[in-house]
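During the first year of the project, the team set up a workflow for recording each protein of interest as an amino acid sequence followed immediately by a discrete structure-token representation. This format lets reviewers and collaborators read both layers of information side by side without switching files. As required by the reporting guidelines, we include two representative entries from the current panel. The first entry is reproduced here exactly as it appears in our internal archive.
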Amino acid sequence: MKIIYFFTALFCSVIIQAQDSLVTKIASEHYQIINFENKKFSGNAIVDLTKTIAQHKYVLIGEDHLNNEVLDFATYLTSNISFDNYITEDDQLSIDILRKGYKKNKEYQFIVSHSNDKFSLFSFNRDREFLYHFFENNKTVIGLDNVYFNADIPVFQELINKTTNKEAKTKYETMMKESNARWDKFKIDTDQKPLPDASNQPYLFSGEFGKKLAEIQKLKLSEYEYYVLNQLAESNTIYSMGYDGKGLESHFLRISTMKEKLLNNLDKMKGKRNLIKFGANHAGKDKSLFQNSFDIGNLVYNLADAEKEKSLHIAVIQKSGRAGSFSSESVDAGDVAFLKPFYQLTGKENEWLLFDLTKINEDIKKQKAMIKSPGLKNLLNGYDYLIIIPKVTAQKLVS
């Protein structure tokens, strides 16, 4: 039995290696070098890519989060192309609080300054600067995600200031205090073994959070408060499902709510130039890279098609380096296993590789090669271009 298993494993390994070699060979025929040195891009590849991007009204960047280099690329694009909308993997409540703080509203400046590290991706300097670029130019920013698991704290601060219900205010203050305490403990050791009641995890993970919200929702509140509490409750459901071991169900609920929010903003997007920046798992025109389910990128692809437009999907992923972290100065950005055929072509750190996945995919099909890796298959079917950054550096928390 062991001998059969050994030869089966060996046979599979040989197939994967052969597949990788074939993809590497084909990829080597369809890539260009983007020069990036001293924070400046140069070369025909970036010029040609920018021209291609400018021809599309729906542009999706699928990233690995919290490195500087993806933001260097995105900033370069916005300095050369004027986008009407920025659609992001963050929640609208946080975006609205940050916008009001940016517009010099003293109340919101206070909230922001006391919660700078509690705005999901916007807790980090380059993502925050990128967001502020759109604020500065009076552009629309649309957040599709649920409330991040420490972003409930500035939301509670806002509710405390807005409510006219004394009982609700006391309850908001209690929940914010609990959330702060749990987050301060959690971020010291984000790998700690979770307790069954989630008491050593962010407050949004726990069933207690949902019960406390339900109590407040019974009170007489403003329409805005009910809206915010519904957003928090929805986020709590998504997190608590994942915490209880229902990861796929949590993923599907999260994606369906993001799609719903996107459709609710369709009037702002139609006929406009839209930049959509999400994790690479979500931004492909076909299926998500890891869950193999139709994701937000697929909906955008179809919405563009309904306008007789073509969406453009660009994955920007590193080979190595460091990424920003809530719990330490930085963490290992790591690599992606199914990108090995592309990684093998990297050279100097200042030379990013731009792969034309459409042409690569066509050649793979011509050679009737079978792609075994679901992630690689979804990448090839879901993205038009892949940019490999040899080494990235970490974003820093906003102080």
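The second entry, processed by the same pipeline in the following quarter, appears below.
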Amino acid sequence: MPQHIPAVSRRTLAKAAAATGLAALFGARATTARAADGLGPRTFDVSVASAALGASAPVRLILPSSFTAQPTRTYPVLYLLHGAHDDYTSWTRETDIVAFTEGRELIVAMPDAGPTGIPTHWRSGPDYETFQLTEVPALLARDYRANGVRVVAGVSTGGYGAMAHAARHPGVFTAAASYSGILDTTAPAVPSLMNAIVTRENLAADSLWGNPVLNLLTWLDFNPRSRAAGLRGTALYVSSGSGLAGGIGDWLPEALESALWPSAHSFTDTLARLGITATTHFYSGGGHSWEYWKQEFVTSWPMLAGALGVPE
């Protein structure tokens, strides 16, 4: 059950929005994608020729331990989405996901979402939504015996992607988990945060979904909170920290976590009004970093495993 934490003040939100304008807060520094096909006994990078992106894009795969020995077996897929200013290698770089999934009979797919980590259909640019929801699954079904059972989890902008994908495409995923995700893109200060992510990559601010006022309908169409009714029947996990409301340490990641705190509550409040059940973990303090996301993934794993049909 969520804990009651005092609301974050508008002044704190303003400070967080200004801090994010420095663009130092949205995830770790991006790493260069490796071109190698084989990175270990079970881990591979695959380049996908994408019509939706107009270019090839990578996806990192972790195959099940039995993949070679059982050539007719099919497998469910866990999709893991990265955050902003990072890339598809982040989950294997920052977590022990390879060791964690050893012996669990599933495929792990980590598709790229571009430098902003916002896996959506851009108004002026690529269509990462189609890449992740249509083109990558087609590859997995054709070449890696994916069986159609899918769950999705993500951090930060990847947390946005997890909930947006599941809400906009009901029934595609049996479960979705967001760790410090951007879950109400029209909440106070959040459009500024989104624009900060975009402009850090030298992209035009309105190239995402257009102007947040003039193109409000588009922003709402891609907003997980606005599309929350589509999540009915999907197992859900949402976690977020209050950041500056109770945390200590490096104030920059805490400032960003504070800025996203009202957005997460707005989203889960909407789920509650719609009668849609979600497992939530709202905690005092915390920062926008893998230090917290790794534990949140472990906490959410029983739900994800149940939806995948694999052992915890």
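For the second entry, the following points were noted during internal review. Residues 1-36 have pLDDT under 50 and may be disordered. Residues 49 and 55 are 6 Å apart (CA to CA). Both points are flagged for discussion at the upcoming steering committee meeting.
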